Amino acid sequence: MWLMLALTIAVVVIAMLVLWQQGALVSVHFFIASALGIGLTMLLMSALMGLVFLSNGTGHDHSVNHRLDGEDQAPD
Length: 76
What we know:
Distance between the termini: 52 Å
Largest sheet: none
Strand content: under 5%
Number of helices: 2
Mean pLDDT: 84
Low-confidence stretches: none
Order of helices and strands: HH
């Protein structure tokens, strides 16, 4: 998670520099919204991927009961 936080901060800083270099006449609210949007999206993505790996690593994915395996055929 620390690596993803550092990567997120780096991407947000690079995005802010690119937006600033474009020289568009936008308000400071545009920069704040862009930084929050990029940052929160990346952090949410990394948290969800962490949960996927945690679920797989603890065996919760293997304990699911697949009762519908033979029931996907239409009845006669």
